[in-house]
Specification:
The chain is α+β, with helices and mostly antiparallel strands. Helix content is about 50%, strand content about 10%. The protein has a five-stranded antiparallel sheet with strand order 4-3-2-1-5.
């Protein structure tokens, strides 16, 4: 929609507002109930009439042209609305996926962990370790990759590491992880078998069950952080068929959610580099809404 200064619009999340400035792909808008916002132009914006008899309580101020790295206040109350998620994300990362801020906060460390996984447990290196019976080394590399990110809480990492200290578990885990990442069977069977082994190890939780495939596939197999994925799914009216214990049906629905978020971001002019960025967006957007972004536990 084309807008100019002093035009009134209606936004699905922020309500009625008056345009202060058109910045190309973004608009500066003073909303009646939400204050000043800079938002992307989307099909969600509708022309509107000014409220009868309404005047803003103070004279409108020219929006500061401070550096784009400045973090604007986020809306005070989370809403189950995808555009609201996007707005919160852009309030924090004004350059979206292209900015250095997002690269450092969400992409770089995951790509580094994926690089370690490929270097130490890529298919050929992994096959060699298994052939020579170096199961302890495989488990050591797996623990190293897990520790390289904050995607799994420390208590989960500790339980997993303790289970792999037992030599009786090491060969089974090494073979199960290889089959998950590189096996020739159907993914359903491979994923289910991996989860069954994690259950025997006392470490069958979504974050561990989906962690290695997430990194190995550049995020194409989405990582499950239950609390945030359920929130994002609700905002898009997608049913995850969520169960606390990892299972194939929920895992499939998680992939549908990842694909949908990727598409919705592209439709709004945002361009994730990979599904790793999609996961980063989901994690950041929910955390920013809850004013908890940056916490690891």
């Amino acid at each position: 929609m084309n807008c100019k200064a002093n035009d009134w619009i209606e936004h699905p999340a922020f309500g009625l507002g008056c345009v202060s400035e058109d910045r190309g792909d973004r608009l500066d808008i003073e909303f009646v109930t939400s204050g000043y916002k800079t938002i992307l132009k989307t099909a969600e914006l509708k022309p509107a009439l000014s409220p009868p008899g309404f005047n803003f309580p103070t004279a409108k101020k020219v929006k500061s042209r401070a550096p784009q790295s400045k973090v604007e206040p986020t809306p005070s109350r989370p809403r189950l609305d995808f555009d609201y998620h996007v707005s919160c994300f852009l309030n924090h990362f004004s350059e979206g996926f292209e900015g250095q801020g997002f690269h450092i906060a969400e992409r770089e460390y995951k790509e580094k962990a994926a690089g370690v996984l490929e270097d130490k447990l890529g298919k050929h290196a992994f096959e060699s370790l298994l052939r020579d019976g170096h199961y302890t080394e495989v488990c050591g590399f797996a623990k190293r990759v897990l520790q390289a990110t904050n995607l799994v809480f420390q208590i989960g990492k500790a339980k997993f590491a303790d289970a792999l200290e037992n030599p009786a578990n090491q060969e089974r885990f090494a073979n199960a992880l290889f089959d998950l990442l590189y096996g020739s069977g159907e993914m359903e069977e491979r994923f289910t078998s991996f989860c069954d082994l994690l259950s025997e190890l006392g470490a069958n939780q979504w974050t561990i069950a989906t962690y290695y495939q997430f990194l190995a596939s550049d995020g194409k197999w989405m990582f499950m952080k239950p609390s945030i994925m359920k929130r994002m799914a609700e905002s898009l009216k997608i049913s995850l068929n969520y169960k606390a214990e990892p299972n194939w049906l929920t895992y499939c629905k998680l992939q549908e959610l990842g694909d949908r978020v990727y598409l919705e971001l592209q439709n709004r002019g945002l361009k994730p580099h990979s599904r790793i960025d999609v996961q980063g967006f989901i994690w950041a957007a929910i955390g920013i809404e809850d004013d908890k972004y940056g916490n690891t536990e």
